[in-house]
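User: Show me a protein chain along with its predicted structure.
Assistant: Here is one chain, sequence first, then structure tokens.
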Amino acid sequence: MNHRILIVDDERRTLLLMERALRDLQDEHEDIEILTASDGEQALQLIEAEQPALVYLDVMMPRVDGLNVCKTVKASPDMQDVYIVMLTAMGQEGDRQNAKQAGADLYLTKPFDPDKVLKIAKEVLSL
């Protein structure tokens, strides 16, 4: 099974926190690969090339925002099985609806609970 996880965020601090949260999982399962991207354009390239099973995706980013990345991925027959968790500081109901319409599988608001990030990854990757 594919155990690639992609973390996409333009804030270096968030990328590091997410990586740290998932490192325990990587220590337990050697076949887990954690990839990172700092903008939507880079994210799309990595998703297409690496086909991660799980993507933690920030909404507000330079070049291509997270909602458009999500729409693009979910519209592609080759990539629609990618599980996408939207990460955002915006927790309004309208924001949740936008993410759902874009095809997001889950919606997490920042600041996030590292244990929840880990739990989601375990569930999605069936670990």
